[in-house]
Specification:
- This protein is mostly helical and about 270 residues long.
- It has one domain.
- The protein has ten helices and no strands.
- The chain has helices at about 5-20, 45-50, 60-75, 90-95, 110-140, 145-170, 180-205, 210-230, 235-250, 260-270.
Amino acid sequence: MTWTRAIKLTLACLCIVSGVACSKRPGTSNQPRPIPPDHSLTVDAYLDKGMPAIDRSWTGQELAAAGRIIKKIANDSGKKLPRYNSSQSGDVFARMTSKSNFKFYENSWSPVELRFADGLAGSQGAAEILKLYIAANTKNEVGAMELIELLGLSLRYSKVAIKLTNEFIPSLDKTASDYSVRMDGLAQMKRGLATQVSGCLLSLTERHIYRPVEMKRLIVHMQDTLPDIIPNLTQQSQTEFINKLKAFDSDPSMNDLDPELHELVMKVVP
């Protein structure tokens, strides 16, 4: 896979994720809607439909394959999608969003091109799954917590994209004719990442959609990822997000998001 194609596909994934993060979702008046009942399937039922085994870590390719199964299920009924902490399907949802799926990208013995390709497949899969869940959430078939966990998953793939890009860039020939094109692609990716971060921060103000417990869970995901993402953005974006986080931290109306919010600020603000 060429660098230019990889960047274009990464941008496509970021466009999906950013659109979801920034989208307005329905609430009841100024309050989040009730959590919908769990009508998800059993683990065995998902496996019968072709879901990869959940008793081991997944590659990005396997997450993408799971996304194709999720799409078939969603086309039947969004109520049958795996749910967060469900007694029926919680183990399937946990495998989709597990941090253990990302250990492969830390293996420097594996060629960066191979890790980048797999990470890209996973990023595409995560973006498509998130898109399906947002559609189901709009119909109140899944809850907000599922969206929070999938946003966290997408943030982790963005963190991987930055890590692998930073590992790959030094190997490029600065005298090559396509070097400037590649750097332009990198700049576009950074803008996409900035839009993703902006959408996640916006979610912390959407109390008509998310409960404090859901917002605090998103903050935990941001604690794991934003310290790696924000320093790789443009200086203007860094300043914007740091100032926004400082404002959140000093806003009395957001005190119910502590200590997670304050801990995030301490990790991100220099």
